[in-house]
Amino acid sequence: MGYIAAPFAGNVPLFDLMAGNRQGYAIPVQIKTANKPSWQYNANHLLDIKVVGDRQFSKGRLQHLNPNLIYIFILVKEQEDDFYIARLRDIQNITQRLYFGDYKSIVRRKNPKSFHCYVTAKDLKKFHNNWELIGESFRVLNT
């Protein structure tokens, strides 16, 4: 595809690598990998959640500096891996829907303070092989 990817040796909390193009522009990319069609994470990394007693309240998406940050979910398979490419704001919207549904608050029965959630390949289906999103990100930088 003509891009160069450079990972970091240390821990960078918001992204895992920088992807560069031939014009010298670079964009940060967050990578999530799994060998089963679901990826685990904590909803409070993406959503503003307030805990009161045993109830969690949705205050919407966290305000990140870069809502266009590229997320690539990789499903590692024996033959050919699957890739799902989306923006941070898309993943926040999916997480909001999956975690809270149509409600403004929920009760986590097993552990009210847990923010554990997951997204599946089915949830990300519309982002399958959405490589054009990376090209769009570079076109925005080139203007």
Topology of this protein?
Blueprint: E1 4-7, E2 17-20, E3 26-34, E4 38-42, E5 47-52, E6 55-61, E7 70-75, E8 82-87, H1 88-100, E9 105-107, E10 116-120, H2 132-142
Parallel strand pairs: 3-7
Antiparallel strand pairs: 1-2, 2-3, 4-10, 5-6, 6-9, 7-8
Give a short overview.
This protein is an alpha+beta fold.
What tags apply to this protein structure?
143 residues; globular; 3-stranded antiparallel sheet; Trna Endonuclease, Chain: A, domain 1; single chain
Please provide a written account of the structure:
- With 143 residues, the protein is an alpha+beta fold.
- The protein has one domain (4-142): Trna Endonuclease, Chain: A, domain 1 (3-Layer(aba) Sandwich), CATH 3.40.1350.
- The protein has two helices and ten strands, in the order E-E-E-E-E-E-E-E-H-E-E-H.
- The chain has helices spanning 88-100, 132-142; strands at residues 4-7, 17-20, 26-34, 38-42, 47-52, 55-61, 70-75, 82-87, 105-107, 116-120.
- It has a five-stranded mixed beta sheet with strand order 1-2-3-7-8. A three-stranded antiparallel beta sheet has the order 5-6-9. Strands 4-10 form a two-stranded antiparallel sheet.
- The chain is globular.
